[in-house]
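Moderator note: this is an archived Q&A kept for reference. The question asked for a predicted structure of one protein chain; the sequence and the answer are reproduced below.
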Amino acid sequence: MKVFLKTEDEIELMRKANQLVSMTLTELAKCIKPGISTLQLDKIAEEFIRDHGAIPTFKNFPNPFGSPFPASICTSVNDVVVHGIPDASTVLKDGDIISIDCGTLLDGFNGDSCYTFCVGEVAEEVRHLLRTTKESLYKGIEQAVAGNHLGDIGSSIQDYCEAQGYGIVRELTGHGIGREMHEPPQIPNYGRRGNGMFLKAGMCIAIEPMVTFGDKSVYMMPDRWTIRTRDGKPAAHFEHTMAIRKGKAEVLSSFDEIEKIEANL
């Protein structure tokens, strides 16, 4: 397993790709409301990404079964954990949650980030799941520093979420990122402190907790993309891309503008 350390120039290119992902998610945040379909959100995202000179990385991205992903974003509603495929028949309604995962390829480097949005008035217990999942992402980022181990990231996420009764999905992980969307190493959201790969400055990774309201068990739909919770309870997913540094990770994506929009709802 070869991990590619990035130069400062490469990290700067990755920052630009991730800034575009954040801008795209912000654009979608303005449109998320009851009555809009996930296909409409996908069209908005693809047009926005291409208008800014980039390629939506997810479109036609292959899975291990040889099935290309047919859309530019993943739209995962309620009990869909990840990889929900946008379509015209999935229309958001009041009380839903939707995780939107987005990737861009800009000037040879990839950006990747995900945010779980509330649609209208969402039950407080579900909002608590979202808050906890987002907070766990930052717990993981705190451990993503040169000199630590991969297990330090996963352990911090797992301990924080499981202490509040939530499940951590085992089958899906974060990943290294750079010229390719998915590079070594895998970044599990569970683990033991002090275990796993040694983190070095210049590594670029995407940390993405996928957390379930109930049991951690998931299954794949016949489309070979959509992953759902087995118990039908909701799941949340947040993701940032970052560069490993000494002392503190440098987060290359951002939720700042999304959170401003949410604060005004």
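Archived answer notes: Helices lie at 8-29, 38-51, 124-143, 150-162, 256-263.
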